[in-house]
Amino acid sequence: MPQDIIDFWFAEDRRKLWFNSTPEFDQFLRETYLETWERASRGELDHWMPSAAGCLALVIVLDQLPLNMFRDTAQSYATEAQSREVARHAIEHGFDEELDPAERAFLYMPFMHSENLEDQELGLKLFAQPGLESNLRFARHHHAIVAEFGRFPHRNKALGRDSTEAEIEYLNSKKAFTG
After folding, report:
1. What's the burial of 11, exposed, middle or buried (CB within 10 Å: 0-12/13-18/19+)?
2. I need a surface site. Which of 61, 125, 133, 162 has the fewest CB within 10 A?
3. Buried b / exposed e across 32-64, counting CB within 10 Å, b at 16+?
4. pTM of the prediction?
5. Complete DSSP assignment for 141-177
6. Alpha-carbon distance 71 to 179, whole Å?
7. Radius of gyration of the chain from Cα atoms?
8. The CA-based dihedral angle spanning residues 155, 161, 167, 170, taken in that order and rounded to the nearest 10 degrees
């Protein structure tokens, strides 16, 4: 099953949807992978973790898929912490070194998605590796937002958080990151 997730996610026709999804693709992911995400969220797929492919697939399921499946809701972020733990496990075991740059980028992405500054700093270090330069500018951008606000202001509405005046000003500006 992990290889099926990887083959699906890294298929050429999927790549164009990674950061430019459509409502149809989001719906397809819900219909196809909701049960897999639910199982992963309960720890039922942790047996995938002893391999690079298993960790990568689990990170995709826990970090990437919910952003699409549950777009603009709190549930989008519900398994981010789990995805970081899987990514840390993979790094500690050297599994990231077995992956190609595109795969490594997705393995490291949970750190870019974290609202914890230490995670963001780890993300900067990881994305500074050769072959990942195209992701480094996004890691720097995410880091700057968390460094300034201590969180991602664009998540406030979905998470039921009140925005500060500075966050509202930022969200209404041309430089706002909206996810």
Report:
1. exposed
2. 162
3. ebeebbeebbeeebbebbeebbbbbbbbbbbbb
4. 0.93
5. HHHHHHHHHSS-GGGHHHHTPPPPHHHHHHHTSTT--
6. 10
7. 16
8. 30
3-state class of 123 per DSSP?
Answer: helix
Q: Which one-letter DSSP state was computed for residue 50?
A: T
Q: How many helices (H) and strands (E) does the chain have?
A: 11, 0
pLDDT at 179 over 80: no
Q: Could you read off the pLDDT of 50-100 as tens digits, one per residue? A: 999 999 999 999 999 999 999 999 999 999 999 999 999 999 999 999 999
Cα–Cα distance measured from residue 115 to residue 163, given in angstroms and rounded to the nearest whole number: 15
- Backbone φ/ψ region at 14: left (φ over 0), alpha (ψ -120 to 50), beta: alpha
Spatial distance between the Cα atoms of 143 and 152, rounded to a whole number of angstroms: 10
Q: Are 125 and 135 in contact (CB under 8 A)?
A: no
Residues listed for the chain: 179
The architecture that CATH gives domain 2-171 is: Alpha Horseshoe (1.25)
Look at residue 174 and tell me whether its pLDDT is greater than 90.
Answer: no
